[in-house]
Amino acid sequence: MGCQTDQELLGIIERVKPLVAKGKVADYIPALKAADQSNVSAAVFHITRGSDVCVSAGDIEQKFTLQSISKVLVLALALIDQGYTNVFQKVGMEPTGDPYNSMIKLETSSHSKPLNPMINAGALAVTSMVNGNSPDEKWRRILHFVQCLLGGKAIGYNKEVADSEYKTTDLNRSLCYFMKQHGVIDGDVDELIDIYTKQCAIEMNCLDLSRIAAVFANNGRDPQTGNILIEEEVARICKTFMVTCGMYNASGEFAIKVGIPAKSGVSGGIMAVVPGKLGIGIFSPALDERGNSIAGAEILKIMAEEYHFSIF
Amino acid sequence: MGCQTDQELLGIIERVKPLVAKGKVADYIPALKAADQSNVSAAVFHITRGSDVCVSAGDIEQKFTLQSISKVLVLALALIDQGYTNVFQKVGMEPTGDPYNSMIKLETSSHSKPLNPMINAGALAVTSMVNGNSPDEKWRRILHFVQCLLGGKAIGYNKEVADSEYKTTDLNRSLCYFMKQHGVIDGDVDELIDIYTKQCAIEMNCLDLSRIAAVFANNGRDPQTGNILIEEEVARICKTFMVTCGMYNASGEFAIKVGIPAKSGVSGGIMAVVPGKLGIGIFSPALDERGNSIAGAEILKIMAEEYHFSIF
Amino acid sequence: MGCQTDQELLGIIERVKPLVAKGKVADYIPALKAADQSNVSAAVFHITRGSDVCVSAGDIEQKFTLQSISKVLVLALALIDQGYTNVFQKVGMEPTGDPYNSMIKLETSSHSKPLNPMINAGALAVTSMVNGNSPDEKWRRILHFVQCLLGGKAIGYNKEVADSEYKTTDLNRSLCYFMKQHGVIDGDVDELIDIYTKQCAIEMNCLDLSRIAAVFANNGRDPQTGNILIEEEVARICKTFMVTCGMYNASGEFAIKVGIPAKSGVSGGIMAVVPGKLGIGIFSPALDERGNSIAGAEILKIMAEEYHFSIF
Amino acid sequence: MGCQTDQELLGIIERVKPLVAKGKVADYIPALKAADQSNVSAAVFHITRGSDVCVSAGDIEQKFTLQSISKVLVLALALIDQGYTNVFQKVGMEPTGDPYNSMIKLETSSHSKPLNPMINAGALAVTSMVNGNSPDEKWRRILHFVQCLLGGKAIGYNKEVADSEYKTTDLNRSLCYFMKQHGVIDGDVDELIDIYTKQCAIEMNCLDLSRIAAVFANNGRDPQTGNILIEEEVARICKTFMVTCGMYNASGEFAIKVGIPAKSGVSGGIMAVVPGKLGIGIFSPALDERGNSIAGAEILKIMAEEYHFSIF
Question: What are the EC numbers (chains A, B, C, D) (predicted)?
């Protein structure tokens, strides 16, 4: 199996580095805009090797916020908390040709049901379904769940990013009030936005992200202890959404060209899963025009070609 | 000119009364749902007769809330306050084939500009442009303006209706946050919603409404004192919108079949203007499937046919 | 009443002439592209003066094709042939915020009914309803009707323009097949397209067009003989559509700013009607970004301001 | 590996048989309407067993037309003929939340490019790209290609179904003319429609279909001779589209619940691929509300659960 050494991974990073000049760092909030456009780091977490399970390369200490990658993790938690039927009563399973923040399908669909949990409307509805008697409890359960996926490692969120998004995310408020009017969500919108902006601001490095990806690669089991962290079916559902809707409006093309289940975030992170083999965490903040890390997507394309990582 | 006596108007009301059974009272808030479906009242305010200027028929004491009719009045005030250029920088002038509360065109139009001031998005943007250093001052200026149109008569708003709408109008909040994200409006959304739900809940009877209509019929001048209450151009703009977008998604058909500038509200009120001649106020809460008073629209159709009130 | 002399009209033309440099001649078919961008001509046909009824200015010999202006004339004929109920069973009466050649509302509306007869879909459906046992008879009846509106003057159509449009108008074919699938039209699509492209290519000068406009201004009666050419109700319906949908996606703005019922064509022609007073024919092929003659629209704006021609 | 005997497969068919009563046979053309709603047949073609490679059950002699299943096969041929770059210059790779026959995205997308090759617009564009100097040659090449996938077996098409669809498929003509106007396709529309309706009417039984599916399961190689019929990359692309867009507007849900690449047709056929293992052909004409064979989809769901056939 491929990508066994740091050196090998570094080689791939060197090949994709020139691409960062063609991308653009997200600039809608100052905290994201400050990212170093030239940054590229990656880690591969093998689930089938002995003690030395992770290879990495680039500036692996560099932290970044999860942004939309968090949608997959909170979906897993909501499915654990509420079950398949309840979750998919409120959120659909179909990919969409519309932008991730579009309202149109909410208006034209019967029941105003968001098409899937990877667009913003669906992700907000999913977050609203996490168990908890208070907004604070919901948020702490989300953070705790992510820490469990990291083997108990204490991580937190970037308060500056969360605060900044909270203040400016009126489009998400618009989506929430629309869904509230139609009974898709209930409760206080600002409390939900508060949790959502925090979950998006959860911060880690590519090593951490590769470990979480490895849980999904390992059918929901902790790659080190073998403990079940996510039921196998839930892990499978999450991987399926990563294929059909994980890379914004380039998901179909990414499935064709790369074929690795992956979820990207506007910070430049990508979590990718090679089922039964390994998890991948990537960070490179220069984005292409559809919002995916330009170097990150290319790393996965190279891996798919060289190591035959496509699921298709 | 037609409709000179109470008796004549009563005759028309008797003819349309059977229609109320085919309509449906708005039921999205309890206060509106409580309306008596069989109610029909109307008043005609002539601007060219001597002292005895108004004929009326039906239960003319019955008050109702203005709802969308208020959009025309607040548009007039915003045009007075901010001027043509400022107002139409934020709101368009084009009719739409979409529902009055639709988001779609906001998303697909460049600049997210609401298509016109008679759909909810446009009306909310217009209300946000009324002058005032505080929400309270804006609201008091709106109420004062309406009272001026009534010759100084003290009227108020229905607090129960306003409160009820404030609590449930999440779709309007959704529209506001969408527009806020795109810079069409700024400021606090809930404060704007508070003013807007109050303006919609301004309460009067059909006699009052016919007097306001008479101001528009009289090119903006008070029909009794001759004082300028609204500049002629502003009055003309308002009448034009009443023709192109005043009757929800039946505006085009109403222009063809009736041809009288009119604005309806979901409470069952209709304000109609026969330019240079008279103003009409109607109340009958049974609505047709497009949200217009079923008996009210028929009264205007009969008047158009019998008295040649069409502007076309 | 205004615009009594050629000199007066020439003065207006001189004022608007500089605007043509800002416009753009339609270039989607060679025959239209060949138009002289600097051309401006206009005629005003008074219905209330004695023998000398028409004033004109500019290169009044210049012919142009009617293009979308023909939609109004063929609507009149279809209403005469089929009656109000039949026509409006197939075509709606509502303005739309979508482009004149859009498919979207056909797909999202129940019954796939075109929203109004001034968008292409609606106009095609209207043309299909003209009486005639063969395509050729339908076409000859249309041409004959237009000649009647011209007091019997023999006019024809520009074969080069019609042929060119016939070959390239695949979007209109697309609209037709969509409507055929949904039962809005039946019969052979290419035969319908043939008639439609010919009607759009009917050729005349601004004097002719002003005479046709005068028929509408005169409630359907021939302005010279007083004969009824169009029933009054049909004429009224046509004028109403000219207000709500006559100037493409600038109809609402034109109603506000000018307030004269008008229909424009992509050739640069505008037919405008001042009810009870006069008809106006304008030709100036430089178009603004919404497809209306830039100088032509300004001529009407000046007339509305100086002669109080607005109907509002 | 599962499903080794006819008996085993028959057991599954018996379990799903009661479902057919809940479905509805396609009725838009008489030839499809005549199908026997109670019919269920299936075949599984193993690529890794010796001489006895195929198990089957139900009325396996029953022929059916491919309908949309042909979209996958013609995509493979177009990719072979024109190459990846040319094909995807005209057709996108993204799933859509809109119906398979929708025009909306064509109008709102830049370049009017169909979103993917599994919706009608995309499939028509793909068919237009098949090599051939004449419509007849294109059609014969398509038929020949399908026969190659069947190991040279002579099959044909159902002329009655093709003729019937040719006469009534005005919506597809509408899509074609729209694309022609925008340069996505060129050439004669009716000739393209003729080829397309024939490809949809290619007729076979479930044994045949399972053999074709086995070619895809075998990475494009003939499961009996090992000859390359489709390049591996082309086969991979086809399988990916089957996952993201193969089951109409239930594709996302089918990926979640079943996870087997599959393409359905309105005749009630489904071609499904378990990569590296086997191909499945199913016929059962009773459709669910999204146009997929109700019993067929359930057969695949049972197989996914019992034999772990999901790729996720």
Answer: 3.5.1.2
